[in-house]
């Protein structure tokens, strides 16, 4: 009986001490008095990277949903040319509020033997979900590296903003 009372008292004392102790604060990252994260920086300038602003619109922004301009269904064999044609058609459309339109893939498996290139900004490529009833791009043939080449997208944006002559002058 004395042992049970002693154990209960010891557990109660430990619980009270734990409740009164300040919460653990990491030396590497913690919230300041305004609730913003503060990161420890080493003398070399290294620190933990903050990815809280990653994503569309800096994170936390609702993804836009531009109108679907072309809808594709899977065909037997290599779908690369059909998909690229649809991307090119949407790429030629005018920008409206920053978008040209969306290419929607119906559910199914699309065999792609080649690489796809998005050559303009404002083109959205949208599937119909994942899993057995979703959209699957199955890359076949030689190694693809990057199946959709986004680098051309950035050059197209630069060209739209700076003009071809400016890009030529900087080596593009």
Polypeptide structure, described:
The protein has helices spanning 2-20, 80-91, 151-162, 164-169, and strands spanning 29-31, 37-39, 68-72, 101-105, 108-112, 116-117, 123-126, 135-139, 148-149. The strands form 4 sheets. Strands 3-4-7 form a 3-stranded parallel beta sheet, covered by helices on one side. Strand 1 (29-31) and strand 2 form a beta hairpin. The chain has a domain at 68-169. With 172 residues, it is α/β, with parallel strands linked by helices. The chain is elongated.
What percent of residues adopt helix (DSSP H or I)? 25-40%
What structural class do helix, strand and pairing data support?
Answer: alpha/beta
Main beta sheet, described?
A: 3 strands, parallel
What's the Cα radius of gyration? 27 Å
User: What's the arrangement of strands in the largest beta sheet?
Assistant: 3-4-7
- What is the oligomer described by this structure? single chain
* Quantity of strands, as a count: 9
Task: Write the H/E string, N to C.
Answer: HEEEHEEEEEEHH
Q: Given the structure, what is the number of helices?
A: 4
